[in-house]
Amino acid sequence: MTNRKRIFVCLLLIIQAGLIWPVYAIFSGIKPMILGLPLSFAWIIFLLLSSFFLLLWYHLSEPSDSTGER
Amino acid sequence: MESWIIILIICGIYLAITLAMGIIPGLTVSESVTGFVAGDRSMNLLILYFVMGASIFSSFAFLGGPGWAYSRGAAAFYIIAYGTTGMIPIYFFGPKVRRLGEKYGFVTQAEILSDRFNSKTLSALLAILSIIVFIPYLTLQMKGAGYVITTISEGAIPQWMGAGIAYLVVLMYVYFSGVMGVGWTNTFQGIFMMIIAWFLGLYLPYKLFGGVGEMFTQIAENPDVTKAMLQAPGLTNSGEPWNWWGYSSAVLVSAVGFSVWPHLFMRAFAADSDRTMKLTGVLYPTFQLFLVPILIIGFTAILAYPGVSPADTILPHVLTQLDLPVIIIGLVCAGTLAASMSSGDAILHSAASIGVRDGLSLFLPDRLTTDKKERFHIRILVILISLVAYYFAVISDIPIVNLLLGSYGGVAQIFPLVFCMFYWQRANRLGALAGLVGGIATTIFFLLYPELRPVPMHEGIYGLLVNIPLLVGVSLMTPPESNQRLKRYSNI
């Protein structure tokens, strides 16, 4: 497994853990409000965006020999 | 002219445009089964992105999403949470599935799995499972469409006629154009839904409270609203605070099952390239983001319109209460129809394709000897499945919603097989069958007897806890599949 894959899997597991108990329990409250949204809502949106950028990074950093159209 | 007539005219124009968009692209696709089921493997990024996104955003998202936020508060974040990671697996297996499909002619999920695990029984099992979860799913979409048309016509058009008209349009373009009809209409309907959702999600809190932040502050400070409304994991169906077991396990099961829903999985066969497939996975969260305004619509109504029941009617209820221009109400209603139809078409098309390719082909192979015959049978099944779903939607009183609630647990049981297909060579026929049957049986058991669960987790988790050890254990105790077969899946 390459380092790139390892980093990807680790970050993915962190994001997944953040979506459920116990990590989400820490961020499940109402205050502080972030950009007008309760913390519990803002946290989920933050993780959604994190997961988007994580996969985007993984895709863009793919070595060129394994991409391309077959 | 009465305002509801104008609204109906807008919906009528919308349906006509959808029908045209659905039929025209079918004219260019070949007469083959691959053309009908997988669009000659020619879908580009734009279409595939919207096919995936709009298929997922059904009338559940448009009516149920605000309903959840309105009645269950933070529990609704679950809908965003499972989609956060749920589509990621498709980035990895999607391109492999696509290449194998191109090479060996697969067009459905059961075909590729039954080839890898060398089992026709598996194909039949998956066909049965797919159709059992698809019919209630389609029925609910029809009910949603019928409900919208009845509400806006102030009862002048009965539900049976509303659902009938909307789904006659769907039936026609699925019948003529197959998946390309689904593709183009979903692109159109997806863009339409997104605009409507963002508009309403920003406009309603602004109009009623002066802004999104102000709205949430007022909910948080209102003494009559329970704190659990904004604090995860929110409330249960009956209004009690939800527990973390239930919330977390529901997120996990839905995330696991998300990418292997047969109608989403089989779109990998329609992709025109690996790049398209990968980018669809990468970009999926941008579609998921559109649940944010959808949930805000529901939150807006908590203080503004308390006591609306059933909660799923909150969006139409809010629309009728506000002094919105008739055109806007008409467009929102068309948007709700779009949500219902863009899921209904994908499900209808997949159910019929799977029924013939994976079910009927095992029992009546003589009837499906040519592409033309096969396509004919798929079309017949498109009509039959529409009629069955229509029967459940407007005639029968059987509460099939419960079936749909259990379906995520059942579909999640396919995931271990898909994972092992590419990443664990040792997995074999008996292991796959034992895992799938054991997992589904356990899920159904705990769905029927929820009080027997040791902890209040989603029944699908118990299914997976039986499924995975059986898949691994039985595979290790029995001989592996032939090298030749395994090679196809490891070198792809």
What can you tell me about this protein's structure?
- Chain B: Belongs to the sodium:solute symporter (SSF) (TC 2.A.21) family.
- Chain B: This is Sodium:solute symporter family protein.
- Chain B: Pfam families: SSF.
- Chain B: It is found in: Membrane.
- Chain B: It is a multi-pass membrane protein.
- The complex is a heterodimer of chains A (70) and B (492).
- Chain A is mostly helical and 70 residues long.
- In chain A, helix 1 (3-19) runs antiparallel to helix 3.
- Chain A is elongated.
- Chain A has 3 helices and no strands.
- Chain A has one domain (3-66).
- The radius of gyration of chain B is 22 Å and the shape is globular.
- Chain B is built from 23 helices and no strands.
- The relative contact order of chain B is 0.18.
- Chain B has helices at 3-23, 33-38, 45-56, 59-72, 77-86, 88-104, 109-116, 120-152, 159-177, 179-209, 212-221, 244-258, 262-265, 274-288, 291-304, 314-321, 326-363, 371-395, 401-412, 415-423, 429-448, 459-477, 483-490.
- Chain B is 75% helix and 0% strand.
- With 492 residues, chain B is mainly α.
- In chain B, helix 10 (179-209) packs parallel to helix 15 (291-304).
- Chain B starts with a helix and ends with a helix.
- Chain B folds into 2 domains: 3-402, Sodium/glucose cotransporter, CATH 1.20.1730.10; 413-492, no CATH class.
Low-confidence stretches of chain A: none
Secondary-structure class of chain B:
mainly alpha
Q: Radius of gyration of chain A in whole Å, from Cα?
A: 16 Å
Largest beta sheet of chain B, briefly? none
Helix content of chain B: over 70%
Overall pLDDT level of chain A: 88
| CATH superfamily membership of the largest domain in chain B | Sodium/glucose cotransporter
Distance between the first and last residues' Cα of chain A? 23 Å
Quaternary structure classification: heterodimer
- At CATH's second level, what is the architecture of the largest domain in chain B? Up-down Bundle
Order of helices and strands of chain A: HHH
Count up the domains of chain B.
2
Return the CATH topology of the largest domain in chain B.
Sodium/glucose cotransporter
Rounded to the nearest angstrom, the distance between the terminal CA atoms of chain B is 62 Å
Shape of chain A: elongated
